[in-house]
Amino acid sequence: MYKKTVHIGNMRCNSCVTLVIALLLKLEFEFIKVEVGSITFRNELSNINLIELKENIKLIGFEVIETKNSIFAESVKIEIVEIIHHLDGTQKNNVTEQLVIKFHHTYKYISEKFTKEFGVTLKKFTNILKLEKIKELLLNHDITFSEIATIMQFNSVQYLCNFFLKHEGVNSTKYLHSKF
Hints:
Layout: E1 5-9, H1 14-27, E2 31-35, E3 38-41, H2 47-59, E4 63-65, H3 68-85, H4 95-103, H5 107-118, H6 122-140, H7 145-151, H8 157-168, H9 172-179
Antiparallel strand pairs: 1-3, 1-4, 2-3
């Protein structure tokens, strides 16, 4: 027999939750809830059901994760996605501080576990997500660079522009012109 809660890797949003729910209904597995990163079943899964879940979950782009380190690193990944998604300029703590508070570990410990699991540094992963959010804000909202800098927790517009140029390879103005 297996645990009632199974951890799932690569889930990022409610659309992922919907995909997993559809799969569980198709497989006729009884579950209590599905959240980003986990499934709680009504009863423990048999080894046969676990194998079936692993095979089918992989077909839709996810994976069952089982080791303590993998579960921890995936939890960190999910939290970073949530933090970046919800940035609105009102947060008192930066992303690093929020992770330390959430996981009750030093940033060094969190970063080492994350890097070991995913082969990319925590800082690089966070920067990729920040860049994507900046692009979204630039393209989909009628807000100023100053407002974007505040939302994304940059100390200045110049720092935002330097960050964008460094990670995108073009400045934000050229990027905007290339999209319209």
